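User: My instructor asked us to take a sequence, write out its structure as tokens, and then describe one feature of it. I'm not sure where to start. Here is the sequence I was given:
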Amino acid sequence: MAPAKAGAIPFPQKELVCSRSVHFGERLAPPAPARLSGQESWVSVMNDGTSTTVDIAGSAEVFGAEQTQRDAGQLVPSAGRGLEAQNLHAWFNKHHALADVSLHFPENTVTGLIGPSGCGKSTFLRLLNRMHEFIPEAAMAGSVLFNGQDIYSPSVSPTDIRLKIGMVFQKANPFPSMSIEENVLAGLKLAKIKTENKNELIEDCLTRSGLWKEVKDRLKSSAGSLSGGQQQRLCIARALAVKPEVLLMDEPCSALDPGSTLRVEETIVQLSETMTIVIVTHNMQQASRVSDYCAFFLSDGGPGQLIEADLTSNIFTTPQDSRTADYVQGRFG
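Assistant: Let's start with the prediction itself. The structure tokens for your sequence are:
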């Protein structure tokens, strides 16, 4: 979704051969990335090495009656701020799952990651807050910069990073033995973070997740008593309680009915006013409704790669790569 910033353009594809088993938490050294300097425009990079420049002073074309695109001129991140992936690779043992992905996520925007199953979207998402490390024999190469600091630096605590870069999973996972209000506070308790006014925090998080009006009279009820859509919004509220700057969402609506999906989408748009959101989705209509940028991933049998990233309006109306056009128009995937 978000086009790679000028300083984060992927270098031409190079085949990396993994001749040995790689292990949990291991990090491999990537080739040196190519860089451009002195540019203030976004660059959409295609897999064949070509690129197209997007003038950030212009306005995003409106796509569809419900499009939520912002003025592209307002999407310029502050220097050293925000989230940026640089030349990311991922392996599961000897399987090279993701190759050389560089992408910048402007602050206070929604970036949709789209593409067929198995092309590395969820793997890429997990790399953005070090969830990849939980998978046995997983390894990575490249860098993820958050506010100018590499989150994979030995001096950076994974726990601290996950507080700042939260995650909502495909399947709602509230703690069923806890009440609704206890679920909201669970992350704070686990991280041993004290709060002066718990009731105010609970109301704020549930309001922002679009759930407060539905549960305000039964906060002490079990989280298991909520519907699937309500449980997913409760998980969003739980993630918000620790005040993240970025929220990663892995197909958060895939198991929800249309009504619940709409409420979650409304929540995403509202939250993007104060935080950066990255969402994996297989729903093209959803991507067009909630995202400001889209990034299209694809695998041709090898590792997943970033094919094209641009304003969502451009991805759906004037994509630069024919494979992107075929995918968003439903010809495959």
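For the description part of your assignment, you could build on this observation: The radius of gyration is 19 Å. Try explaining in your own words what that tells you about the chain.
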